[in-house]
């Protein structure tokens, strides 16, 4: 009876130590990505709380429309006009194509790889994000841009967790692309998480099929720290 108690006590102690070591090692390996997620969550919470505390009470009886209404001839005929302002080019923009996620204050160069060479793709992912080979230039068709969500801390590169917050994007969020010095504005429509081929039956094209309008897909591994599934964010061109 005593030996059984000792066994269970030692087993519980071993499991506690194992879980603590696992958590520490996991955080060390993916600390940058989890730090980015934690920072965004905390910042988002405090900004939301600040807004709720300090916003003045709404005393308007009638709500105001965010769009501009223009009368055309008859007083009963109106046309709604919605405009999207183009962002100011960032200082980092020189001869480099750039992606900007304003919601997270993230900027990264976009690299073009002309062939599905995994070594070359991984090399360029250390320097930014990659326009997936065979997909269209952003704004001209069906485009896929891939980036890391996490990487080992000892591996080189500044962009090891550039797409760690992709799953936090929501419908209506804006994505800015600067291509050949030209600004493009994309709007998030939908996010999906899927198990890719060959483990699963899904691919980016089956999850978000091409359409007649220009589409930009942002894609990375999911969840953060694991390359098991993929997170894909569908955005559509709304201004150029």
Task: Briefly characterize the structure.
This protein has 240 residues and is an alpha+beta fold.
Which key phrases capture this entry?
single chain; about 240 residues; alpha+beta; Sortase, Chain: A; 8-stranded mixed β-barrel; two-stranded antiparallel sheet; elongated
Mean pLDDT, rounded to whole units? 77
Helix-strand string: HEEEEHEEEEHEE
Q: Tell me the structural class.
A: alpha+beta
CATH superfamily (homologous) name of the domain at 98-239: Sortase
Q: Can you tell me the CATH architecture of the domain at 98-239? A: Beta Barrel
The gross shape turns out to be elongated
How many helices? The count is 3
- State Rg: 23 Å
β-strand amount:
25-35%
Total beta strands? 10
- Residue stretches low in confidence (pLDDT < 50, at least 5 long) are 57-83
How is the secondary structure organized here?
Blueprint: H1 2-54, E1 68-72, E2 74-81, E3 98-101, E4 106-112, H2 118-125, E5 129-131, E6 142-146, E7 174-179, E8 182-194, H3 204-207, E9 215-222, E10 229-239
Parallel strand pairs: 4-5, 6-9
Antiparallel strand pairs: 1-2, 3-4, 3-7, 5-6, 7-8, 8-10, 9-10
What this model shows, in words?
This protein starts with a helix and ends with a strand. It is α+β, with helices and mostly antiparallel strands and 240 residues long. The chain is 27% helix and 29% strand. Strand 1 (68-72) and strand 2 (74-81) form a beta hairpin. It has a domain at 98-239: Beta Barrel (Sortase, Chain: A), CATH 2.40.260.10. The strands form 2 sheets. The chain has an 8-stranded mixed beta barrel. The chain contains 3 helices and 10 strands. The chain is elongated and about 75 Å long.
